[in-house]
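hey can u check if this looks right to u? its 217 residues, i copy pasted from the old doc so theres a chance i mangled smth
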Amino acid sequence: MKNSVLIVDDHWVVREGLKLILETNDKFSVAGEAEEGIAALQLMEDLNPDVVLLDLNMPGGLGGLDTLKKMHEKKIQIPVIILTTYNEDDLMINGLALGAKGYLLKDTSRENLFRTLESALRGQTLLQPEVTARVFSFREREPVSNVKSERNTLLTEKELIILQAVARGMRSKEIAFDMGVTERTIKAHLTNIYNKLGVDSRSEAVAVSVENGILHL
């Protein structure tokens, strides 16, 4: 059975390009498309797609970040992959904090598109290397208000290593293999990281850490 994808982008050319690429893979089908968030939210409720490709910067109607916020309000639990460009660093960080499962540059390769979609469907967060570089180069931001500054110094060296691996899109099993420990140990460390940062997910942990200057390449 194919996984259905909802494409949300205000550019017709981008939507058509994504549709053509998705049609080349027998694991995916296009559930529908929308030019802005209000229409997208309605399609999410009507079509219940397996995953959403969402443009962040949509000038008309409801933008990408507001769409993510509305999804939370409506309790729409569909994994979202953000479509972004190189000049949207601020939006990228905020999108992570809102639970995006991955980011794709609009000129990404076919292989990266499918890899990111598959990761999102598994409930994992995946950042492509070129996007990760942009996220970590973004430094001139005020600390987020819901994270106490004293928490920044509470992460151990091992927890920082794990958090950096998470930001690169590595799975718990892969991190465990690299560090020579069990997967259960990594998951226990992740729980500690979440508690210290006051977050509930990998994507939120990465976003909060970047905004507060905790992570460095």
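Residues 138-152 have pLDDT under 50 and may be disordered.
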